[in-house]
Specification:
The complex is a heterodimer. By secondary structure, chain A is mainly alpha-helical. Chain A has helices at about 1-20, 25-45, 50-70, 95-120, 130-145, 150-155, 160-180, and strands at about 85, 90. Chain A is about 75% helix and about 5% strand. Chain A has a two-stranded antiparallel sheet. In chain A, strand 1 (about 85) and strand 2 form a beta hairpin. The N and C termini of chain A lie far apart (about 55 Å). Chain B has 3 helices and no strands. Chain B is elongated, with a radius of gyration of 20 Å. The chains are: A mainly alpha, B mainly alpha. Chains A and B meet through helix 1, helix 2, helix 3, helix 4 and helix 5 of A and helix 1, helix 2 and helix 3 of B.
């Protein structure tokens, strides 16, 4: 199981790197789709069918919106190189170097916390259910739902779903507001 | 353990994309990579070897289920991710209509 997941994740990382370095924005979006649908297969392998269904729908919607945005504007990517050439004089792109240095510093920062977290984690597949044991035992008689994930979302943690719907509604209102606004030249 | 590390590498790829791209669309793509890696990491933590999907089938011998709690939380997070991504792309459309470019360095009308 770990081997299959590792191969899939390597494939996804390759797609992600291609998406970031692609010259054409449309091919970058297709490569983004590799990562999203690879995630769907990972969810199916990890015994999470609900997540796989939701991820398929969400990824398709996001890709369609992104492709619509790109086709409506421009497909050219903006090139960013370390050495800039202007009027025959070549000099070092200071902003890009600064950005790469920031990435390295943040990567080391996250690596420190990742190291701390990974010591406390069990190896893959040996998780011990603590809180969810109660959910698994009582979901059938308390919620009447055969699907435990549905039981948790809509019954045990219904307020989370209420908050989620609020955020979704706020986002829709924001999108409508931004799109209806008349831009001033 | 190697799966966790690969998840972390995917997160770093997204971070690199966000911080070094000039194109707004590339920044949104990098953000979605970071989101994907976090979803996968949370679901990996809840995975149990040889357990079945968290759906009751009426078979009393079946008591070993994958942890449903991370799955429920990730389900919420995926939908919120869709909302934020839609919002970002709307802003990208508006910026393109106003400035004629996706380059974030050209968007400087608020600069003092």
């Amino acid at each position: 199981m770990e081997l299959i997941l590792s191969i899939l994740l390597l494939f996804m990382i390759a797609g992600a790197l291609y998406a970031l370095f692609a010259k054409d924005l449309l091919s970058a979006l297709i490569a983004c789709g590799i990562v999203g649908y690879g995630l769907v297969i990972c969810f199916l392998l990890l015994k999470a069918p609900d997540l796989a269904i939701v991820q398929i729908v969400v990824e398709s919607i996001t890709l369609i919106i992104m492709v619509a945005v790109v086709l409506d504007s421009t497909r050219e990517d903006l090139k960013e190189t370390i050495v800039l050439k202007e009027k025959g004089v070549s000099y070092i792109n200071a902003k890009y170097v600064f950005n790469v240095l920031t990435v390295i510093v943040l990567a080391l920062f996250f690596l420190f916390f990742f190291n701390q977290a990974i010591d406390k984690l069990e190896p893959l597949g040996q998780h011990v259910t603590r809180m969810s044991s109660a959910y698994i035992e009582h979901a059938a008689e308390k919620t009447g739902s055969a699907n435990l994930v549905t039981g948790v979302i809509f019954d045990f943690r219904g307020y989370d779903t209420l908050g989620e719907i609020t955020i979704l509604f706020t986002a829709v209102v924001g999108v409508l507001t931004i799109l209806r606004l008349k831009g001033r030249k | 353990m190697i799966v966790y590390i690969l998840c972390f590498i995917l997160f770093q790829v997204g971070l690199f994309g966000i911080l070094t791209s000039r194109n707004i669309i590339k920044i949104v793509i990098g953000l979605s990579f970071m989101e994907f890696s976090v979803y996968l990491f949370l679901v990996l933590i809840g995975y149990i070897e040889n357990a079945s999907a968290p759906i009751l089938t009426g078979n009393p011998a079946q008591t070993n289920f994958v942890d449903p709690l991370p799955q429920a939380m990730v389900l919420t997070a995926i939908v919120i991710g869709l909302a934020t991504k839609g919002m970002l792309l709307t802003m990208a459309i508006r910026i393109y209509k106003k400035f004629g470019t996706f380059d974030i360095r050209k968007v400087t009308s608020l600069k003092g």
